[in-house]
Amino acid sequence: MIFSQDDATGQVTLSPEGPFVTGSYVTLTLTFTTGEDGLAEGARLRVGMPNTGWEPVVVPQLRYWDELVRGKDRKYAPFYAVNTTAEIVTQGDAVLHLETMERMLIPDEDPAEAYWRWWITATVEDGPLAGGDQIVLTYGDPRFVRRGVRVQTFPEDELTISVYVDSGDGNWMRPKGAPVELDVVSGAPARANVVVPSVITGPVPPVRIALTDACHCRPNDDPPRSLILRDERWRRVGNVRFSGLQPVKVELENSGAIFERVTLTDSGGEQIWGTSNPCIHSDEDNLQLFWGDLHAQSEYHVMHSQKKDARQPGWSKGISCGTPDDVYQYARDVSLLDFVSITDQGAITGVGWELLQQKAIEYYRPGEFVTFKSYEAGSPVGHRNVYFRDVAVEPPQDAGTFSYMPDFLYEYYRGRRDVMLIPHHVKTWTDWSLHDPDLEPLMEIYSCWGQSENPSMDRWDKGVTPGAGAWEALRRGYRLGMIASSDNHVGMPGRSYQHDRQAHTPFPGGLAAVWAPELTRETLFDALKSRRCYGTTGARIILDFTLNDQPMGSILEVERGEVPREIYAYIRGTDAIDRVEVVQNGKVVETGTPPHRDRQDIYRLQWRDTTALEANTHYYIRVIQTDGEMGWSSPIWVDRV
Length: 641
Hints:
Helices cover 7% and strands 36% of the residues. It is mainly β. It has four domains: 4-185, Immunoglobulin-like (Sandwich); 191-281, Sandwich (Immunoglobulin-like), CATH 2.60.40; 288-538, TIM Barrel (Alpha-Beta Barrel); 539-641, Sandwich (Immunoglobulin-like). The strands form eleven sheets. Strands 26, 27, 28, 35, 36, 39, 41, 42, 44, 45 and 46 form an eleven-stranded mixed sheet that branches. The N and C termini lie far apart (66 Å). The model has no long low-confidence stretch (mean pLDDT 94).
């Protein structure tokens, strides 16, 4: 099987050529014109869309077995909403048979070509094609889908539509014009992230506002001249003027409105651009609540199964997009995060390792924006991210001797208190027989992959590895806190929006929340190691949880098994709270539901557990809002001594 250029095979063109706007709907027509020798019966044209973040390809459904009914005798059933068709322009008798599949190409090749795609295969039947005949593929055929098919929801340059031709000898060749290059660009400003600190201890700070397009990307057009901030009674409390697309800070005319949440609208109050996250006032200058994404990627990210670096000669990119600068600037200036970490798979053995470390140093601003030195260590028995408390620049490791297997990492970092490993999407691949309690204080239980906290299929649409999942780790007695992050492979940390590069990661990205005294790399790292943190599905839900006055992540020791456990949880939601659940040893033991009143986004749960203390007893809080957003606290453990 040969993948090389052969212009004599024919030529391929695309109409329109683009660029295309994120999340827009289009009809693409790909025309393949055969070369001088034409194509024999049985020849195949195979086309791969840029990635599975584009709308799934749906071809006409056949009624009968391929082996029994072929060519012009094939019959079709109208049971699925077709969006992709094919036609032949020929004087002969040939017809086409269409098939589709979701596949990678081959292992360990340029991810820009070989990563997950929707593949369309058109097979020539009932005769050959002569030279100059055409195969016309229509993706988003308006006869069946009026608005066309949806473009990927994130901007990216130099995408490719792969095109191969098998003339009948089993060798796949690229025709002239292949691969077809195209660009996806972000759209005009359509919404905004409106952010305030979750905990305010002193003077009321300004409201921060960052514009995005409809798909939560950095916009690509002029901003509105002005917008208005309104309180919950719809009174104007601030004017917002933009001089460009950079984030702005706005002082409120009525500072108290910040605690009620403010909404950004047009001048008439008809179009809502965004609403601020909730915040609370604290008279004590102790812990702050900081928001971030500990699982972002740049263009240096590669497949964990790849044995080659993302910058091989002839390779164009990794399996994410955006330079490290792009990633940090999106986190800081668009998502308005407090902290972020670029966790490129294989980075520590790659050519980008020193650059990634230097950029972590460059973007770090204590008190304003925290970055971590980190990388991903994916393996067949689980994926883990590795984080460092400092950012001393070190050379890359030898790819021939360094391993991403957990047992190697445990030994390599043994005794290092400045290193932390966090397993992620732990519902799949994770082998919990491999765990180091000194190095692994946390697990990521939500991201664009879905939730790994419990065995239900709620917010999960894939297979589950037997013995995996957060509940199994806790059942084993592992003292693992919980966080969430994005893992979206689009270079946009903190973006909580459905659909990214892969069809199998369809959920909005999550966020990590950390209770810490100040915004520095060291204090955040220490708070994470102490499990003073929680995760959400992307909403900035305020969640405080104590057991006998000890905070989330604590380990309590009691002398008698009958000691009551006083549980307290305070929740300030971004929407009305549906319920708050106390989970003990994998079971919901108490459910709190807010009464019907005006402010259903605030709830205080108080509950006493007087049952006999079991071995490995742990509790955590699960929050479910009426809009579907969720939050999970880190557990608190109670041990008998």
